[in-house]
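INTERNAL TRANSFER SHEET
From: sequence group
To: structure group
Subject: GGDEF-domain containing protein

Please process the attached sequence and return the structure record in the designated field. Keep the field labels unchanged so the import script can parse them.
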Amino acid sequence: MRQGQERRIWDAAATLEALGGAQVALWVWEPEDDRLRLYGAARQLGLGPLAPECSSAAFRALALPSDRAAAEELLRIQQPGAEVSLRLRMRGGETCLWRGVWLEEGVRASGIVAPEMQFAASDADPLTGLLDRRSFVARARERLTTPMRQTLVVADLDRLRRLNEALGHDRADLVLAALGSRLAAAFGPDALLGRIGEDEFAVMVAGETEAAEKLRKALEQPLRVAGFDILPTLAVGGVEAEGGEDAPDAAELLRRAELAVESAKSAGRGGGAAYGRSMESDGLSQLALESDLRGAVARGEMTPYFQPVVRLSDGALSGFEALCRWRHPRRGLIPPDEFLPMAEELGLMGELGAHMLRASARQLALWRKAHAAAGDLTVSVNLSTGEIHRSGLVEDVTGLINKHRLPSGSLKLEITESDIMRDPESAALVLKALRQGGAGLALDDFGTGFSSLSYLTRLPFDTLKIDRYFVRTMGANEGSAKIVRSVIKLGQDLNLEVVAEGVENAIMARQLLELGCDYGQGFGYAPALSPQEAEVYLNESYVDGAAPVRRQG
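Return from structure group:
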């Protein structure tokens, strides 16, 4: 018996040693007990603070803000047999792949976690060596966090079925493998390359406008397979997007590029097309989307996401700006630039604005109740174009402040310059009533359109917000730098707090602090976070005493 016991003890120790040597850890997630257990190379993977076991809140808090959606996905209860596969980076650690399976419904899931490079081969398409679809989307999602123009091109090989019939699948695979090799040779190491379907290839490059032409030139070259001369032709679709906090989701961007491919196919072999909204299929047409939008608020699909606002002098969290997001039941998270103009055209901005005010005030009240340190926390809500003149606005805002017992100034309203200048005299009366009712007031996008600075001294604002364009370009554009300096100086002279939008890294934050700016917000701290992610960010900021900022953009 003793020998058996010794053998089992030795086996367990050897297993742990092997896991450590291989830089792999085992994980077991038990949601009913709110417990995540880790065995193996936890410290090497940046998971040391969580080992040997931790709660879900601790797991979320250790994940980087940009990866907390992936952390939530790992913790989400799924059906037995459902696979877990995601990329996740913890604070102070490298990007790791979490793989596993749900063993019993709602009871536990288990698997392994290892550095991404350990699984490099499993993320690649076995035929071409390029990224598979899931990995391509994950990498593209990371790239879209950087404020840089990205071009995504998708190419569909014409007549693959004919090739399979004529050559057989094995020889047709040689054609696909050759095309993958040509694609890799045509683009530099900074390009993102993938085989995202049986006959589909994808390329994502930053700041390159000739990607489609380069792809076509590389792949539409003759090749000889099994004695046959083959001239591949492609249907090519492309789409461009600006990375950063307002970037569309990578899966949505890929959907748009593939929609452009379908449009290119309709033009015949070798066609090409760039994405446009007119391409949307019947099921997701503008008309259908408009119909969905009309009832989105009532169905609870519209929700505020919260972007942190940080005090530059010490990195302390000051508050959040609430930004509207639409979680469509079929299309997922729809970018604001896609539904806000539509909501304005349909006359839904009043309903949407009132909903955002209610939801944001309720969330602020919950945070204040749950956190003793949240006494000075603020939440800002944007008023849409023309909403300042909406009948009942003052009553709605003051009613929410009184209902949730919010301190004066904690619920802030952000109004753009252009909206004020439509009718400055009327706006001044509304703003005065809002201020008397306990609302804070911020002048948004300052520097982009104010017609007369004389009005600024007569309007009861307490905050100026510098437009993100000037902040992002102040390092390379002297004109932008002068505007930033001028706005900060003006705020100081008028005793107004100044918030800089578009802070992308610690260098920008330090420059703004040296100029005397009070607060900053932007992707350098965090993108707009779901209420759950914002709660984790809030907890983390109170524990650490400062919000983390990226060193470089």
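Handover comment: Residues 129 and 310 are 43 Å apart (CA to CA). Residues 1-10 have pLDDT under 50 and may be disordered.
Transfer complete.
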